Write a sequence for this structure.
């Protein structure tokens, strides 16, 4: 079975200024950048896979596969990761209450936020706040 030839390109806003590998079968760089910008701009919203696929003008299944092929993670995992990244910034730079941060970054409640935060970061949000001040 032949493997896809990688195409290296730069996409601003994805993990700083690192180059991201795009494989055949993934989303075009411009479209991927637009989708990622949409996610970042709407983190507090309930972003559905249906809507992301609609923005890309692809079926849900095709969009999900192409997104994962492009970034190495499923759309939902990417969304959760971006929410956690934004929460880390808010935790270290503001004195906002945890419940407010949870709602600001798009989690339904503080409990869900704390659970996902611990899974991704390895410590509770409050512990992260105190170690990153």
């Amino acid at each position: 079975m032949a493997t896809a030839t990688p195409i290296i390109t730069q996409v601003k806003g994805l993990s700083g200024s690192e180059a991201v590998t795009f494989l055949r079968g993934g989303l075009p760089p411009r479209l991927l950048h637009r989708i990622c910008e949409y996610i970042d701009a709407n983190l507090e919203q309930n972003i559905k896979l249906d809507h992301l696929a609609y923005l890309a003008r692809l079926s849900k299944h095709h969009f999900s596969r192409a997104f994962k092929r492009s970034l190495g993670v499923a759309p939902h995992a990417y969304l959760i990761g971006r929410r956690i990244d934004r929460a880390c910034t808010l935790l270290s730079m503001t004195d906002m209450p945890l419940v407010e941060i949870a709602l600001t970054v798009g989690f339904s409640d503080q409990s869900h936020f704390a659970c996902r935060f611990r899974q991704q970061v390895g410590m509770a949000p409050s512990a992260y706040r105190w170690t990153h001040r």
Notes: The chain has two domains: 7-72, 83-131. The longest strand covers residues 7-10. The chain has a mean pLDDT of 86. Residues 83-131 form a domain with the Arc Repressor Mutant, subunit A fold (CATH 1.10.10.60).
